[in-house]
Design goal:
Radius of gyration of chain B: 29 Å
Number of helices of chain B: 20
Strand content of chain B: 15-25%
Number of helices of chain A: 7
CATH architecture of the domain at 356-402 and 459-567 in chain B: Alpha-Beta Complex
CATH superfamily of chain A: P-loop containing nucleotide triphosphate hydrolases
Helix content of chain B: 25-40%
Strand content of chain A: 5-15%
Distance between the termini of chain B: 74 Å
Strand order of the largest sheet of chain B: 20-22-23-21-24-25-26
CATH superfamily of the domain at 356-402 and 459-567 in chain B: B family DNA polymerase, palm domain
CATH architecture of chain A: 3-Layer(aba) Sandwich
Number of strands of chain B: 29
Shape of chain A: globular
Structural class of chain A: alpha/beta
Order of helices and strands of chain A: EHEHHEHEHEHEH
Distance between the termini of chain A: 31 Å
Helix content of chain A: 40-55%
CATH topology of the domain at 356-402 and 459-567 in chain B: Palm domain of DNA polymerase
Strand order of the largest sheet of chain A: 3-2-4-5-1-6
Oligomer: heterodimer
């Protein structure tokens, strides 16, 4: 359950953390969810279909004799459109958790070209203000991936997000490249 | 005046509201107009609604404002909404565009419902519905009612005039020299002469024949743009629309994601008063042709031109909206309902797909394949699975009154079952059979997508929990079926979502499986049919590890001689036509074996055919156009880090000035040397000697070895033999060991 590459040490303070990396750092974020769930309840808002609970179950298995109980510490909901992201955050804010909140792939639905950029900006602004409210009570960890080339005109959304968090960590480029390049077999 | 006829086309006009074209029972084509006031709704905080009231009150086109209570499908109790009544659909579109920008925080309902859908919900009138109407002396409709329904098994259809126009070759590949005009009355080749006489000929033919359906090949992407440009350049008028006051309506090109694929749809040419159907833009044309397209338009109420081009998902969506409007349920503009919170454990338990029971790899004799009839739609109907209804307990519905989704599906499902019954009443070569099959295929696709639509992010009546409940029901049904089959002494060889492959010693005829099928029907409450009894069927292993079975990768031959292939090269769209044909023929030769004893000889025949094909390839006897690979690019070319063969071919096209869009099919040939691919749609000839034969031998060997692998011939050895024939292949087939 190695997630040291994301330099957010637990226990997390009640602030807004942002981690940016290839594939929204899925494995690292799932590792973080697993680690948190072993100790306490954790709320997960999955905005990009990233919540692979099989992986989390595998990660916690060596550390607990009761994996079912630990998996029940995770409370999650998925959103598939940016309208649903806002509705989901409104629902959470109405009954805010005291435990950490992990938001996976926050920007995924805001890149949908069916949603006009100005609407996406408005909805993201709304989402960020709700996340700010939530971070007053518990830590909020958000993951995103770099804006893909095909959606480059929406890079403004990532900038908006960056300017609305307390701690931002970006996976170094060399790390991303190293993960994609296979080492030479000989010499 | 009273008029009876079939509705052909319906569209907005800025004056009265709607323009409608009918095919009269007296064969006249008549245009009417109709006033069509519409309403839409807004909900949200009171202060915002008050501000909206002030803003729209008295605006052009607004007939009235009122406060209502209406049912939102995702909310238990009726919600307070503001109803805005508009004098016409055109005013409604304009006003909604403005207020959506000014009041983005409000929830809107019934705001983007298409005009055909609204018309159907109000009058029960749909494309090609036979109607009776009353109109005044200005052709303004005063009343209208349908004389038939969407669910008629053998509908009373109008005598459509179909005009076909197509180029003499693929315009992406070669220079078009002539066009072929064809109707039920005449057929004529029209050369593209420099003077432009062909434009006059086409124009005259259109005016004389006055077609209802204008069928083209490459009409959207080449033919109509070409004819328009030529008409303008040469100053020769060309009237494609029946409504002469309108120009052609061009719908923008688009790229979208559907069922795991990126799809590109070129610009579309839509006509007024008649329908343009471009066979090359009609994604399902090969499946259900014109009869299926018309069936799709009738049941979904999509305009014929749209029904021909869009995916069945849009059809299901339209049908659900009609159901909602008929039930007086609000149609949400943006779905905001979210998934209920669940634990990590609950997600693991619920987020699963269909049941798959891996096959027993190898060759099996006398196997029955039994399939549930439209399993997922049947589960939705039986379990009453709909976003607004509590989820069922396995297959037991939580309440009796059907929700929006099952209510939409039930008549569709029943109609398909009835059409399939009707097909069985005719001999196979009866002229009705082909048409009925095409119609059944269109309905099948609607039923297929309805399940996926429950989980689709933009589906108005989608809900992820409902989607999961369907797969859960499907798994339960399949497990029950397996238990019944095993309790009856059958061995279950393979299960795949909605089908089982079963066998039992002594059972080799359809009647031997009747009892087990009845018992499965009884224990599941769903209908299961015998797809057929295989003389033999071969389940194939993984290409990378022969010990691992692969679901849904098999081929076999039914007792009727019909061959069934799944997951092989012959089924893939990117396989060159010739390689697919060789593979199919090899299977057909194997399929001649009626008994185990006959198989050895058939294997030899299949192998001989393979060898002959290989020699043809080596001796350049295969036409180059049969070797074209049908590739695809899913992203903009600059997004690719790795360069696949399709991408390399696409880059050649882009370099030649041919725009490449995500989702576009890219056809190419593997060639020797550099560049190693040749983009087929560059339109240049390729010397057959340039073809990369070793690459095609590799592809052929893969296809051939997939067929011969169940008979003990390893892919590696087969490929090596195909490449240099330096080894000896053993073709003896040990029946006792391999056939189970």
């Amino acid at each position: 359950m190695e997630n040291s590459l994301i330099p957010f040490s637990t226990p997390l303070p009640s602030r807004r953390f942002l981690a940016i990396g290839a594939h929204t750092l899925s494995n690292k974020m799932l590792g973080l969810i697993a680690k948190l769930s072993l100790m306490q309840h954790v709320t997960v808002l999955d905005c990009g279909n990233r919540s692979n609970m099989y992986s989390v179950a595998k990660m916690i298995r060596p550390y607990t004799s009761d994996p079912v109980r630990v998996m029940c510490n995770i409370r999650l909901s998925r959103a598939f459109t940016c309208y649903q992201v806002v509705a989901m955050l409104q629902a959470v804010t109405a009954n805010p958790p005291q435990e950490p909140l992990v938001v996976l792939d926050l920007l995924a639905t805001f890149l949908d070209e069916d949603v006009e950029l100005k609407d996406a900006q408005r909805l993201l602004n709304h989402s960020l203000s709700l996340l700010t409210q939530l971070s007053a009570l518990a830590p909020v960890v958000i993951s995103v991936r770099p804006i893909p080339l095909i959606a480059h005109q929406r890079a403004v959304l990532l900038e908006l997000l960056k300017s609305n968090v307390d701690v931002c960590w970006e996976e170094p480029l060399a790390l991303q490249t190293a993960q994609q390049t296979q080492m030479p077999l000989f010499g | 005046m009273t008029f009876r006829g079939w509705l052909l086309d319906l569209y907005l006009n800025q004056e009265e509201g709607l323009t409608l074209w009918f095919i009269g029972e007296d064969d006249r084509r008549v245009c009417f107009r109709q006033a069509f006031p519409v309403s839409f709704h807004a909900a949200g905080p009171n202060e915002q609604l008050r501000a909206l009231w002030k803003q729209v009150n008295g605006k052009a086109g607004v007939l009235g404002l009122s406060r209502r209570q209406k049912q939102d499908v995702f909310v238990a109790d009726p919600v307070d909404v503001m109803q805005i009544d508009m004098d016409s659909p055109a005013s409604q579109v304009r006003l909604f565009r403005d207020i959506e920008a000014d009041f983005p925080g409000l929830a809107y309902y019934d705001a983007d419902v298409t005009i055909g859908t609204r018309y159907m919900a109000r009058y029960g009138v749909f494309p090609l519905a036979l109607c009776e109407l009353e109109a005044d002396e200005n052709q303004l409709i005063q009343s209208i009612h349908p004389l038939n329904t969407r669910w008629d098994l053998i509908p009373d259809l109008p005598p459509l005039r179909i005009f076909e126009l197509k180029p003499d070759c693929d315009p992406n590949r070669a220079s078009v020299r002539s066009l072929l005009m064809r109707t039920d009355r005449f057929a004529q080749h029209v050369p593209l002469d420099p003077a432009g006489d062909y434009l006059r000929l086409i124009n005259k033919a259109l005016a004389t024949y006055d077609p209802d359906i204008f069928v083209t090949d490459w009409g959207d992407s080449w033919l109509i743009p070409f004819l328009n440009a030529q008409s303008e350049e040469k100053g020769i008028p060309l009237q494609l629309n029946r409504d002469t006051t309108r120009p052609i309506r061009w719908q923008k090109e688009t790229t979208y994601f559907s069922y795991g694929h990126i799809i590109y749809r070129p610009e579309e040419a839509h006509l007024f008063g008649r329908c343009h159907v471009d066979r090359k833009s009609s994604m399902m044309w090969s499946d259900y042709s014109l009869a299926g397209t018309l069936e799709m338009a009738r049941v979904t109420t999509l305009p014929i031109e749209k029904a021909a081009r869009v995916s069945p998902g849009q059809g299901i969506s339209a049908m659900q909206v009609i159901t909602a409007l008929e039930k007086d349920v609000l149609v949400p503009y943006q779905k905001r309902q979210v998934e209920e919170f669940k634990s990590g454990m609950q997600l693991i338990q619920s987020d699963r797909g269909g049941m798959v029971y891996q096959p027993k790899v190898g060759l099996h004799m006398d196997v029955a394949q039994v399939d549930f009839v439209s399993m997922y739609p049947a589960v939705i109907i039986k379990g009453n699975i709909s976003p607004e209804v509590p989820l069922p307990e396995l297959l037991e519905p939580a309440r009796e009154e059907l929700g929006v989704v099952p209510l939409t599906l039930k008549p569709l499902y029943q109609k398909r079952v009835e059409i399939k019954k009707k097909i069985r009443q005719y001999p196979p070569d009866h002229p009705m059979v082909a048409t009925l099959k095409e119609r059944a295929n269109a309905l099948k696709w609607l039923l297929v997508v309805c399940f996926g639509f429950l989980g689709y992010k933009n589906a108005r009546y989608g809900r992820i929990e409902a989607h999961e409940a369907v797969t859960k029901g499907g798994r339960e049904v399949l497990l029950r079926a397996k238990e019944v089959a095993e309790s009856e002494g059958f061995e279950v060889l393979h299960m795949y979502v909605d089908a089982l492959w079963i066998k039992k010693r002594g059972c080799s005829k359809p009647e031997h499986f009747t009892d087990v099928i009845s018992k499965i029907n009884l224990h599941t409450g769903l209908t299961i049919n015998l797809d057929g009894v295989y003389r033999w069927v071969a389940f194939l292993p993984s290409k990378t590890d022969a010990r691992i079975p692969i679901a849904n990768r098999y081929f076999g031959v039914f007792q009727s001689g019909e061959i069934k292939v799944r997951g092989l090269e012959a089924r893939r769209r990117d396989t060159p036509i010739w390689i697919a044909a060789v593979q199919k023929q090899m299977i057909a030769l194997l399929g001649q074996a009626r008994t185990k004893a006959e198989l050895s000889a058939c294997i030899f025949e299949a192998f001989s055919f393979y060898y002959t094909s290989l020699q043809k390839l080596e001796e350049n006897q295969v036409p180059v156009d049969q070797l074209v690979i049908n590739g695809k690019v899913s992203y903009a070319l600059e997004a690719y880090k790795a360069s696949t063969a399709s991408v390399r071919a696409a880059r050649q096209m882009e370099a030649a000035g041919i725009p490449v869009k995500p989702g576009m099919r890219i056809r190419f040939i593997y060639r020797k040397g550099k560049p190693d691919v040749f983009a087929w749609d560059l339109g240049k000839p390729i010397d057959p000697l340039e073809v990369n034969k070793p690459k095609y031998i590799e592809l052929l060997a893969k296809a051939g070895s997939a067929v011969l692998a169940p008979f003990g011939i390893s892919e590696g050895l087969f490929r090596e033999w195909s490449e240099n024939r330096s080894i000896q292949l053993k073709l003896e087939y040990e029946l006792t060991k391999r056939a189970r």
